[in-house]
Prior knowledge:
The protein has about 500 residues and is an alpha+beta fold. The chain has 20 helices and 13 strands. It has helices at about 15-25, 45-50, 50-60, 70, 120-130, 145-175, 180-195, 205-210, 220-235, 245-265, 270-280, 290-300, 305, 315-330, 360-370, 375-390, 395-410, 425-435, 440-455, 460-470; strands at about 5-10, 30, 35, 65, 80-85, 90-95, 95-100, 110-115, 115-120, 345, 350, 485, 490.
Amino acid sequence: MEKKEIIFASADYNESKRISSLQKKGIVKKIAPRIYTANLDEDPAEIIKRNILLILSGLYPSAVLSHRSAFEFKPTSSGDIFLTYSYTRKIKLPGVTINFLQGSGPIEGDNKLYGELYVSQKERALLENLRITKKLGPSSKTLRLPEIEEKLEKILTIHGETGLNQIRDRARKISKQLKMTNEFEKLNKIIGALLSSKLSSILSSPAAIARAVGSAYDTQRLKTFETLFQYLRNQEFPFLPDKNKTTQSFKNFAFFEAYFSNYIEGTQFLVEEAKRIIETNIPLPARDDDSHDILGTYQLISNKKEMRIIPQSPGNLIEILQQRHKLLLSSRISKKPGQFKETDNRAGNTFFVTASLVRGTLLKGYEIYQALDHPFARAAFIMFLISEVHPFNDGNGRIARVMMNAELVNKDQTKIIIPTVYREDYLLTLKKLTNTGDALPYVEMLQKAQTFSDKLHFEDFNELHQHLISHNAFYESDEGRHLVLENNSFETI
């Protein structure tokens, strides 16, 4: 016999007799009423939790996975799962309590989930979760009101007003069929507040309130920012006083800072070409825009007075970003220098913050940033914040690194250069933090880069250039397969 995890008792005499025989032989065991398993090793509670949807389908055909379970698709932390059925009752299985709530069976629009088990359509689930309940926490049949508001805010973010209004129209229609007109009125008020057509004082979710007052933000990105903040707050970072005290050494450093920052973004020049552009203020023939990019970057980061300016308020962050971006991309009118993006942008499979959420996400990010005190921690945080939001059509990486180094200049700390050889490490650790929330590789990468940058203090431009050459800083990442910072220099492995 096939070793099935779940075997249901049968009304068929022969099948029932066969299961009984297998049980006597120790091939299967009974783990709950009408439920057997051939998995003899594992805890019955774990088997049932893992197969709960299959079990519900087999034992309760035409039941509707409803209320909070229609969103969660699994038992709560207290082991509760909720079904709308023909009666109200509780059935306890090992590890799971099935809560039956008397109500309408599947209606048009509800979806089959497993066999004959249905799940409430989105509009029905929203109405169900707005029902009055006395219980709180994981044993409650409904999600908390802020959670419902956040789901609606997410729909508005992704599908716009049209999508949210379609939800409202469908909910209005089925609320009469389900006898949930009171619940629809609650839903209607929340949607109205989100669309700013009604008072937002009825909202309780921070994300929903922000949306209603015009400062909507990306809730998922905010969680990543909080993760980075917690990591930075729990680390001890050294102070690395800037050794580029003279005007000349500061400008020498700024040249290569601008050179490598543009190289990361694909604006590639020979060092001699870039030096000529900056010294003469004349773009190379046929490369006017690229020439102005490196010139704009250099003019910004070589200005110590400008680079000492850091945000003092949420609004000031917006102002500084837009002013610096305007200077950075002054020649690229088509990129709308100084203006936030109006359409969404991406890099490969990475989608950045939606255009409508840029301002609100930056404002929320500032609230976290201001609680950091060490200049390196603030630099690491604000660089990731700007990179992750990607507020402009172009120049986001460069402006993020400018904002990072301004934090360090403000406190007379060593600025951070990301050489060509370290480009891949830089981009990969950023991506890892975005995708997994793992802050350690990103922070360690910046620390290594700053340690290397701390050695770059030369009065003579040519000596600095030769030092960078001798430490493999101009290597393409794929030339050396994978290049890392080691012993304050770039080594191949």
